[in-house]
Amino acid sequence: MPDTNDTETTESNDPPTAAPASPSSNVSRGEMSDAQPARQKNAASEEGEDTVPQQNSSTHMPLPSTTPSTQVYSKEARVYHARHAALIEDHDNQRHHQCEQGCLALLLEPRVPHYTRIQVLQLLATVVAPSRAGGYLSEAQEMLDLMDGDQVGVQLLKDDNRRMLADLDRWRAENGLDVDLEGTMEDQSEEDSGEDREATAS
C-alpha cells in the first residue's frame, strides 16, 4: 500500500496546469493590454523576425516627454484656435463689428501661435476699411517671410495672403488709388516746398 504522505508530496511538487485565459479572468484591463504586445514580441522572436539582442531599457534613447510648460501652451493654443473659430462665425453671420473687436483683442495676446495670429490678421483685413487692411496684410506677410517656406501650412497662408493683397490692389486700381499714397504725399510735399522757394525768391 503506497504511503499517502509520499503521494501528496509528489503531487504538490508538480506544477499546476494553467487554465486557458478568458475575458472573465482576474487579469485587469491594463495587464491584459500589456500582455498582448509581449505575446506578439515573443512570437516574432520565435519566427526569427526579432534578431536584435535584448538591451537594457535604461540605455534606450528616451522618447520626448510632454513637459508642464508645453502642456500649458498646448491648452492655450487650443483656446486661441477656439476664439479664432468664433470670430470666423461672427464674420460669416455678418457681425463684422464684433468680429473686428474680437480680432483686435486676440492680437493683443502675447502667446498667440504664429499660424493663428496670421489667420486673425487676414480675417481682420476683411472687416475693416481697405486703407487699414493693407497694414494687417503687410504684417502677416512679414511674419510669413520669417517662417519655413517648405511647410505646407506656410505655403497655404502665403497663397491666401497674396490673393488678398492682389484683391486689395485691384480695389485700389478700380477706385483710382493705384498710386503709392506715401509716395504721393512725399511728392506733394516737395512740390509745396518748391512753390514756397519760388515765392520767396520773387
Question: What's the arrangement of secondary structure elements?
Answer:
Elements: H1 4-13, H2 29-46, H3 68-92, H4 96-107, H5 114-125, H6 130-145, H7 152-174, H8 181-201
Distance between the termini: 148 Å
Query: What's the total helix number?
Result: 8
Determine the mean pLDDT: 71
How would a textbook summarize the main sheet? none
The count of β-strands is 0
Helix content: 55-70%
- Give the SSE string: HHHHHHHH
- Residue stretches low in confidence (pLDDT < 50, at least 5 long) are 4-13, 15-67, 181-185
Approximately how much beta-strand content do the residues carry? under 5%
Folded structure, characterized:
The protein has helices spanning 4-13, 29-46, 68-92, 96-107, 114-125, 130-145, 152-174, 181-201. With 202 residues, it is mostly helical. Helix 3 (68-92) runs parallel beside helix 5, helix 4 packs antiparallel against helix 5 and helix 5 runs parallel beside helix 7. Mean pLDDT is 71; it is low at 4-13, 15-67 and 181-185. Residues 1-70, 176-202 are annotated as: Disordered.
